[in-house]
Amino acid sequence: MKPSILVARAVFPQILTQLAQHFEVTSNQEDVIWSASELMHKLQGKQGVFTTGSQRIDAELLAACPELKICANMAVGYNNFDLDAMTAAGVLATNTPDVLTETTADFGFALIMATARRMAESEHFLRAGLWNSWRYDMFAGSDVHGSTLGILGMGRIGQAIAKRGAHGFGMKVVYHNRSRLDAALEAACGASYVSKSELLQQADHLILVLPYSPEAHHAIGAAELAQMKPTATLVNIARGGIVDDAALADALKNGTIAAAGLDVFEGEPKVHPDLLTVPNVVLTPHIASATMPTRLAMAQLAADNLIAYLVHGKPLTPLNPQVVTV
Question: Are residues 93 and 117 in the same domain?
């Protein structure tokens, strides 16, 4: 008898076809956003679940779903997983590293440029029919080339962004990370390690690429924003909650920093209402990995993890490999 799995959100049809070769599949192609209790009900009798960031897997759910063996996240981030609770329950967690690195780095750099050059603000101006003359300082932003790029979090995506800045735009790249890169990798990225305080003070354009954790909650708040240059920009493509969105909205209103670009938000898909009232912010709906080839690769890796573990006992990208029994 085939194992039973749940695919919790809509996904590429070819992925469902592949999964159906190995499993009894319950899918959600209507893409209904289930409540926690609805998800719990849908998971009854299931050995695996294909998740996205919108499904919270915690101790309460795990206790109610004793047959569950694996949660395969279609994302590199996994702050929707209570990893400690999953490990304690013997439930494997997997994610999709590597396949979205370059695409996300492209988008991060695009957001840096759009923020620095006031693209969204000027487009709104044009669409409103307000453009009727040229002026020397009209939507004058800041240069990207030759400026200082600051990166908070220097994993795969941070390194890819550093290379784009250093080698493509002649930027001075500084970074802060929990652990310093080795000298060879720093050289390849064209990046120099600095303290967090130095990073905030030096960066003309600061981009956040660190994973969310309780320790990273509001890593950028009012105190950190006050350390930045008034001409600086801030871009967040990491996770909501790393930035105190209310404090950021105040900083943008008060000119503490010049502009911001955000692809992630606290409590998304809700956006802090104050961010919707300030003109000097570029807002996108968590789409940094959104190209068709990349999203397909993410879905494929999540599916491959389900097959590799439930069929062959050997997951590809485990987050808590200690639960795997040989």
Answer: no
Provide the residue range defining the domain that includes 224: 101-283
Half-sphere CA count of 123, side-chain side, radius 13 A: 9
Other residues' Cβ atoms within 10 Å of the Cβ of residue 108: 27
β-pair type (4-7, 48-51): parallel
**Catalytic site includes residue 268:** yes
Q: How many CA atoms are closer than 13 Å to the CA of 298, on its beta-carbon side?
A: 25
Tell me the CA distances in angstroms from 143 to 114, 117, 196, 259, one per residue in order: 11, 7, 23, 13
- Which member of 24, 60, 102, 268 is catalytic? 268
Predicted local distance difference test score (pLDDT) of residue 194: 98
- C-alpha torsion angle, residues 49, 54, 60, 65 (rounded to 10): -20
pTM comes to: 0.93
The answer to whether 96 and 317 have CB atoms below 8 angstroms apart is: yes
What does the pLDDT read at residue 1?
87
Is 286 assigned a catalytic role? yes
**Pick the catalytic residue: 239, 266, 272, 295?**
239
Q: How far apart are CA 34 and CA 191, in angstroms?
A: 43
Q: Are residues 169 and 260 in the same domain?
A: yes
Residue segments in the chain with a per-residue pLDDT below the cut of 50 = 326
24 catalytically annotated: no
pLDDT of res. 222:
98
